UniProtKB/TrEMBL annotation:
Highest taxon of the lineage: Bacteria
Domain Competence protein CoiA C-terminal: 222-361
Pfam families on file: CoiA_C, CoiA_N, CoiA_nuc
Organism: Metabacillus niabensis
Annotated protein name in UniProt: Competence CoiA-like predicted nuclease
Domain Competence protein CoiA-like N-terminal: 5-50
InterPro entries: CoiA-like_N, CoiA_C, CoiA_nuc, Competence-induced_CoiA
Domain Competence protein CoiA nuclease-like per the UniProt entry, residue ranges: 56-213
Amino acid sequence: MAERKWTKDRLRSLRDHSDFFCPVCNSEVELRIGNIVSAHFAHKKISGCTEQHEAESSYHLQGKLDLYDWLKHNKAVRNVKLEPYLPKIKQRPDLLAETENEIVAIEFQCSTTDSKILVKRTENYQSLQMKPLWLLGAKRLTRVGMTSFSITPFQWHLTNFTDHGEPPQLYCYCSQTKAFIVLDSIIPFSPRLIFATHQKIPINSITFKELINIKINRRTLYDNWFAHVKRFRLQLKSFQSKESSLLNITLYKEKQTPITFLPSHAFLPLKTAYLIETASYIWQGWLLLFLDKYSIGKEILFQDIYYFFKNRVKEKAIKIRSLYQTNIHYSYVIREYLNKLCLLSILKMSSERKYMKISHIRWETNLEQIIHHDKQLMEQVNKIFR
């Protein structure tokens, strides 16, 4: 933040006539002044100091200043500090905002770092009863389609969870366009490809309270989801993951069909799908194969379905996503999937732990017929999914 109050000439003069020491480890640091990154202090020798940071880009620096000025003019924010040092945890959040109900530690993340460091910083904030809020530098967000994005495993750790069982959000800020980009109702199709409703919001047109409580209508989300399902079915797969190969082999053995011909009900967009890292159609495909073995009217125990799924996880046919932000067990997504099959008249819940199969699962070999079923399912999803 030095360049906001000091000219570069003044900083150079200060560097030539002063010695500097780290407030955390007391070792000597040097003042570095450049044209590409912001002026910053760096340890002269490698140390284990927890306060060592890389130099900031102008994009990162400007973003923090924008957010600071914005928060200062928010009525709901009682107090805001820029890079305050928190001695108990030896950390400096980019911003610390105090509202009527909570203190929020805001981090503007413009580079990839070790996920363990991110988790540790978050846990430290929580230990001080502070709410951590991570903002991704928007230039690192990769858009794929109308409502689809590609996000990395690291970026998954920046997502924000609000209500229990609801899909996560991702907050981004662009210091060049002076706007937030909010991804809401994130539903993964595969490990990296997600679908989400999104909105670009100029920073001075929204309050902090409005931002953290934002909800975006997900009506168009499902249409775009099923448009991608169609592309998936028509696209020749030249590369397969280990998980998709395992399912593909089983499908050819049991149903004489490829993975692209999975039933329409293997492509349901679910709120808790973020709990599973493996592509949605793979783990849903496994569950449909399991349910297919039961005859109409036969009762199915949730425990049996869960153990089948758990064994696929042990065999590494399904991978669970590791997320520190939520402690919801992956059995929740299994339950949600079964409940959606009840709404779609495939199953019927006979008790809290029991289901009954009431309709056959369609295994088609005609691509045109499968795409027709997908369209019918999309119409049902738009009517009954919330």
